[in-house]
């Protein structure tokens, strides 16, 4: 990655992180309710019986109530667990939903770990992002877990990144290893983009 691209990404991440920190509690709660409704509709639209999703941090658009309800409805939900080698293991979400602090302070499920290839069997991937542009380019938080995962999948199902409405941007700095997404989920809408995946 060129220094100019890396610097642009770093600056943008810092700005987005700061904006997220300033959100009020009522704004966070409203965003989580909106994300929940959008993701429910997305799962129904795709007829998804098995999905991957992430457990949101305090600063991210909330996904936890959606995960709990999806599990209650019989949807198989795989949750990511970070590994030292930069790949992701997966654990099946359970009704108890035990959560511990994983690497980088991220919330992660407690339970039996499935290897990185477990995600190859899902119908839909729901992943975190700092921002997404209108071409489907996703800006992550710089650790590359999801870019590695998407880049290694033989048959990638639809991939939707979850962001706040203000984080859907016209254009983002990107490099060769960055993986595009199929669509964007915000608290107020779901945007399905023109296919750009391989």
From TrEMBL:
List the GO molecular function terms.
5-formyltetrahydrofolate cyclo-ligase activity
Which terms are listed as keywords in the entry?
Answer: ATP-binding, Ligase, Magnesium, Metal-binding, Nucleotide-binding
Judged by the first EC level, this protein's enzyme class is ligase
Cofactor dependence is on: Mg(2+)
Establish whether keyword Magnesium is in the entry. yes
Which NCBIfam families does the protein's record reference? MTHFS_bact (TIGR02727)
The protein depicted here goes by the name 5-formyltetrahydrofolate cyclo-ligase
* Source species of the chain: Microbacterium arthrosphaerae
